[in-house]
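Protein: undecaprenyl-diphosphate phosphatase
Species: Vibrio agarivorans
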Amino acid sequence: MQGKKYGLIMVVALLVLLVPITLLIRSVDLTSPVFDSFGLFITLLTDSAGHKGFLITLAVLGVAMLRLPLSREAVLAKGLQLAVILLIGFASKTALKELTESPRPYTEYLAQAELIDSAENFYHLSAPQRDEVIENASHHVSTWRTLHWQGEKDYSFPSGHTIFVAICVAFFGGLFLQHRHWASLAILMTWAGGVCYSRLWIGMHRPEDLFASTAFVALVYIVTPSFPKIARLLVPYVPIRLFSQR
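Structure follows.
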């Protein structure tokens, strides 16, 4: 637990950061006009934590991690730990969505606009019918929002994007804090807050989805080991040039 204190501090920091973010966007008007520049910015943010861009985000953060004064064994151990946390997080997200069956906030708008009978009814429609309903909504809602609605028609809870963000904050943020890389830490937290904001703005999640997803990651982070013995066995098989020489 001692070695994880920095990561847990950063998860708590993310939870604190979520408070002003959710207050700022507590009431979202999904029909409000959107400037293209802002819509593109939000799209890039949310995609950086989704299936389109999470690997790029991991690669960038991984390069930043390799610049830290870590031994080869430590980097391998951390990498294994990260892989397990990501696997647990993504698998749990899928299972919890099917278990909770919480409608996404935008389906509530669709019901209010009388495009569907109820938010729950949206999930009983066929795929083509869901597409048609969202297409009808695009007459009153910016395509910068409905574009994402078309891509994510599953349930709301938990937030997979927030789970990924919280994992990055706990894992990489903890390392940046421990080694006092303040610039990297500031950029990471700004990105994390931006992604969380984007999920609320688009109409994908409620504040409780974000808070619960972050708390869930904290729990997974606590119970996941760091695999030092396995890392020690793998060290001879990893090229030295991948690591900082210290």
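Remarks: Residues 72-100 form the longest helix (29 residues).
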